[in-house]
Every structure is written in structure tokens, then in C-alpha cells.
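Appendix B, record 7
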Amino acid sequence: MAFILLLMMILPVPHVMRLPPMIARQAAAGWAGDAYAVYLEEASSQLVLTFRSRWETPTDADEFWEALLDYGEGRWGKAGKSEGGHVEWEDTPDGKVIITRQGQEVLWVITPDEVIMDSLLNIINLTSP
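C-alpha cells (predicted):
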């Protein structure tokens, strides 16, 4: 998945923020695995994305975290909430977005609204600060 994320960050997709290729490649170095899920409700075209990545070293996690925050700010603007290892954007064109970090793991979640976000975070045993 880090490869897919790397491509998403650098490929020329209209209206989607991209990181410079060198920064994206550096951020993807040290990837130790990931898990992701994408759900689409066809009737409403609402999308839910969860992406959890694990990094080989704290430095690798730091590099990815910083690159993902830069990507988020470029795509959704300044985050509405930022506390340590937890960043949130509300009311984006994609819905509610969080990026959170715990040690060498980074979790990125996009949901259509806060109700779905809260339910999903409850399922994966993570609470928003």
C-alpha cells in the first residue's frame, strides 16, 4: 500500500495535491507493512477509507507522518484540530479526515461525516482526543 500511496502523492491527478517525488519516495522508505479498507455505499457514493501503516524505525514513521501532514494541508488546508499525534479536518470535500500516530504506526481515516467517523474509531478502539 505504501507504493500505492506514493503513486497517489506524485501522479498528476487533477485537483488532488501531490508531494514532490523526492519527498514522497523518502516518506515511503522504511515501510514495514500496512492494512487498509475502502468501503463505498453505492446509493449515496459515500466513501470510507482506513489506512494503517507500520514503519521500521521511529525516524521512518516521523518522515511519513510529516509527509502525510503536508499532503493533508495541501489537499484540505489547515487542520481544524491538531494535538500531538492527532490531526483532524472537518467538512472537507471528502468529509471528515483524521491522521493519527501511535509510535511507529500511522492511521489515516476518511469518512463522509462525524457520526460514521466516531462509529469507525470506536470499532477500531481509537478515540479522538
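Remarks on this record: The mean pLDDT is 78. The CA atoms of residues 2 and 28 lie 6 Å apart.
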